[in-house]
Amino acid sequence: MVTTQRKQGNQLASLTVTWEKLPDDFKLEDNPVENTGQPLIAGALRESLELVGFIKSEMLIAANFGLCATVNGELVIKAPDWVFVRSLLAGESEGDRKSYTPNLEGENPYVVMEFLSDTDGGEYSVKPTFPPGKWFFYERILQVPIYAIFEPPTGLLELYRLQNGRYELEFPNEEGRHWLAEMNLFLGVWRGKKEERTGYWLRWWDAAGNILPWAVELVEQERQRAEQERQRAEKLAEYLRSQGINPDEIDL
Question: How far apart are CA 199 and CA 133, in angstroms?
């Protein structure tokens, strides 16, 4: 249980947070994503982590996924566009999951991300009364260390770190990236094309500054290596012929 306090008008109100299991028959709202780009951005973030072997069985990485807490006896569920939890409790990583209750089922989320639409500013809501806004929920109730807000149309990324119980805006480094120490990765913005979408994307870079590739990029890299090898083989064959040697008769 987490108990904090907030000022409401001239009164000091108590905020009591508990972590309770959802009833088995509880029906989560099935809110559709706001545009087709959001699931692509979320999927790309997971894909590159998976390809480099970052993801472990005890981790939780999900998109448009319900995070739950009980606040003053009232259930609150918020669904960030992307969430990363480093460690679930033993046995909690098995099976399909519809929601996640921090502390009850595993660690607190380390990162939550929101991808803004053209019209939605709800991610910035600090409303403390029931139901609380997303900002208030992540900052005061869940106390998530990293909160990233990304505008896909413009490429603007705002990253907030929890400092003394409040989110503080962090400026990126010279490369425009943010270091996430618990993941040992940088997060930043990249512009290009993937699948049917051309625009700004969120990407990961390792500690050495190497971008974590997508599958399509790995395939292209392999194609380029094969082409370079073919060209080297052709040049070698031409040289051997110039020396009066038939490369087809060489027994390797």
Answer: 29
